[in-house]
Amino acid sequence: MFAVHLMAFYFSKLKEDQIKKVDRFLYDMRLSDETLLDIMARFQAEMQKGLGKDTNPTAAVKMLPTFVRAIPDGSENGEFLSLDLGGSKFRVLKVQVSQEGKRNVQMESQFYPTPNEIIRGNGSELFDYVADCLADFMKTKGLKHKKLPLGLTFSFPCRQTKLEEGILLSWTKKFKARGVQGTDVVSCLTKAMRKHKDIDVDILALVNDTVGTLMTCAYDDPYCEVGVIIGTGTNACYMEDMSNIDLVEGDEGRMCINTEWGAFGDDGALEDIRTEFDRELDLGSLNPGKQLFEKMISGLYLGELVRIILLKMAKAGLLFGGEKSSALHTKGKIETRHVAAMEKYKEGLANTREILTDLGLEPSEADCIAVQHVCTIVSFRSANLCAAALAAILTRLRVNKKLARLRTTVGMDGTVYKIHPQYPKRLHKVVRRLVPNCDVRFLLSESGSTKGAAMVTAVASRVQAQRKQIDKVLALFQLTREQLEDVQGKMRAEFEYGLKKDTHLTATVKMLPTYVCGMPDGTEKGKFLALDLGGTNFRVLLVKIRSGRRSVRMYNKIFAIPLEIMQGTGEELFDHIVQCIADFLDYMGLKGAQLPLGFTFSFPCRQTSIDKGTLIEWTKGFKATDCEGEDMVDMLREAIKRRNEFDLDIVAVVNDTVGTMMTCGHEDPNCEIGLIAGTGSNMCYMEEMRNIELVEGDEGKMCINTEWGGFGDNGCIDDIRTQYDKKVDEGSLNPGKQRYEKMTSGMYLGEIVRQILIDLTKQGLLFRGQISERLRTRGIFETKFLSQIESDRLALLQVRRILQQLGLDSTCEDSIVVKEVCGAVSRRAAQLCGAGLAAVVEKRREDQGLEYLKITVGVDGTLYKLHPHFSRILQETVKELAPRCDVTLMLSEDGSGKGAALITAVAKRLQQAQKEN
Ligand code: BG6
Ligand code: BG6
Ligand code: GLC
Ligand code: GLC
């Protein structure tokens, strides 16, 4: 009995001595809670640094956005392939996810070896090898010729700009294949897979193993928002608020951030914590100076740390009687599994003896106890360091959520965590001590990262399918060169019908003679009044033209025309106009003055002289009764008479295209075409009199108002009209009319966009499938909004803000789609308009028998002026479709009022000349 006591006493004394000895030797490796809290605070600062746009480039902890935005919600399904590369084992898997009632995931997998010559050889050989393994797997599982989406778990730091791309920043752990760093690993693998003609795989997602782990665990526990790996390497990811991620546009919701915490300390932040053993280990590693935090923690290094320490202790005569074996001198001879075995609760001591003996040592009882304690200190430090960094993440989550107490789950994986007998317990305990205000559940990922990777792939494949649907809609608006040439040809043919006596009455492009026969010559002068009705603004103007210097002074005032007047009776409309004139004269102090007046009236009028214009039909937003078929000049005169306050000499009525051509022609005599791309769309040009069958005489030229907005009203461009164009037409004031205008002008583009958005929403592709009241409201997308949305300088958030101003509650993804829709619609408009313009310049070139035509087009209209791309695309299209014409587009700075005044001046002079004769 006494002997037993004595033995026990002797043993505990021995143990105490050994522990004290090791504790003394490894003093620096034992971290107090105070130190851990300090490390935790440092890691919090590192995370902040990594997330900031300006600080990220120099941050050691990279905080990589993963483009994984949500944890699984159970709606995922499908069949996927998965690769898991970078941990201790390389696996290929097939994952079947179904929802039928309850969540159900089935996996089949196969491990493949990763020989050193492959993972440290040539990059292309590594990817060829991976592709070969995949092909082999597909063959054995009978999956060849099946097109499957693939999720790639790739456990190295990658910079991602989207889910299906990742630039390898640097190899870590055991990998060091040449020529891969700085390249996109997804394309590397895709390229390698293409060599296998018999497999068709689409890599939809690249995920880090931490992300895969987080998603795997979140599938079972929706509270899971952190993923931690303590395996060959160590790392963590967590769900960060988008508003804190500077590197990614958008601020709603969350995104998973791969912290790459293994690199913590690479900038020297942990030098006071690192020991001589850590430094020695680092020097002998594949990546010296890198992954310094990882090298104190993870499985690839723990055994080696122990070996270095044991060797040092032996050298100092503190172990093995000062004896060292050659195995103890050999790098890598002690592995993490040995450390785990030596720390086993019961068999630990026996295991230690066996392991040391295998290393060619002759350990005493005391040695075994000491070595066991070395292992404990090394692995405990590992758990402590992990705990400190994890505590920082948990605190960040709690603060982000503005909670006093956080309840959360951390998904765990990695061999150290899984096989080391004490590790999980220690880790959990320290974490709970460091963050007492977090209730943390640790959940081991039973099925590795793959299940999670499959969830991410499932979401990606749903997104891809949706993308296809969106692209299908956008494709309807993409016109080929042939289609545009066809439009050009048909427009040209319509011009001829409109000009010919026999076909004129039934022609859809009316080709109206304007009785404007020449361009300004600089001799015009005088004071004129002008009206400008039919565009976005109604204006009354006073125009003073001085001869010789081609200088013009203008005074104008904009007046509103309320909708009820635009669509009321004709008398009301003209009374309102006259009221505005009276106000203007009053305002200008011109009461009683009898000035000649030019009337820009931007609607189709049949003219028999310059001062007569019978409205054929209203277009755009006007629909006043009793006007169609009436002479607009007469109606204006009558309204002036009704008011009986002043008299005006109405000399000319001109279309806005004609006014615009004249305005520009005053500066550039080469300007023989006028184009409006505004509320409506129209064009006029100078035509040879001999071609105008409706007007007597063959000499000289006359301006023709084409009214090309009506092009297509006979169905000739129905092949390119979409269901959305038809919807817009049906909802308009003039169904079936002005079909070309409805595809090309400001009043309708926004409506087309709105119709597309409604359809995409109905298909569940936008606005979470919810059609809001706002979206149902006609006219919400004015040209100015389209123009703003499409501006290149605008960040996504600003687009979103515009949509919000319009009352559309959109996510950032929605905003991207809306912008694309706007782009497709406005691009088509510019191209169609370009095809029309190409038709007229080519006609002019041919009519004049020229090899090459140089001509200027005067242009006006809010679409042309405000839209960021319209004018460029228009110009490009004309150039392509009319290569033998040198077309200069000249913006009319002064509106059509000036042109109308110039026309009035010429008409007045002619009037006087006639009187005098
Ligand atoms: C596995 C995951 O379970 O754990 C891998 O499926 C991960 O994706 C690995 O890389 C990490 O642990 P270890 O110890 O294999 O590096
Ligand atoms: C103005 C002209 O500048 O542009 C008007 O003065 C013309 O005559 C108008 O109708 C066309 O553009 P919008 O976009 O106002 O219809
Ligand atoms: C290394 C890698 C990291 C990975 C971790 C765990 O730290 O850089 O991407 O998550 O190992 O496998
Ligand atoms: C409409 C009108 C036309 C006008 C054009 C531009 O198409 O019918 O006359 O020129 O809009 O304002």
Description:
With 917 residues, this protein is α/β, with parallel strands linked by helices. The chain has a domain at 1-476: Hexokinase, domain 1. It is 44% helix and 18% strand. The protein is built from 31 helices and 26 strands. The strands form six sheets. It has a six-stranded mixed beta sheet with strand order 1-11-10-9-12-13, with helices on both faces. The chain has a six-stranded mixed beta sheet with strand order 14-24-23-22-25-26, sandwiched between helices. The chain has a five-stranded mixed beta sheet with strand order 4-3-2-5-8, sandwiched between helices. Helix 7 (276-283) crosses helix 9 (299-315), helix 12 (348-358) packs across helix 13 and helix 13 crosses helix 15 (423-434). The longest helix has 36 residues, at 365-400. The N and C termini lie far apart (150 Å). The mean pLDDT is 94. The structure holds 6-O-phosphono-beta-D-glucopyranose (2 copies) and alpha-D-glucopyranose (GLC) (2 copies). Residues 226-459, 672-906 form the Hexokinase C-terminal domain. It is found in: Cytoplasm, Cytosol; Mitochondrion outer membrane. One of its GO terms (biological process) is intracellular glucose homeostasis. It is a peripheral membrane protein. Pathway: Carbohydrate metabolism; hexose metabolism; Carbohydrate degradation; glycolysis; D-glyceraldehyde 3-phosphate and glycerone phosphate from D-glucose: step 1/4.
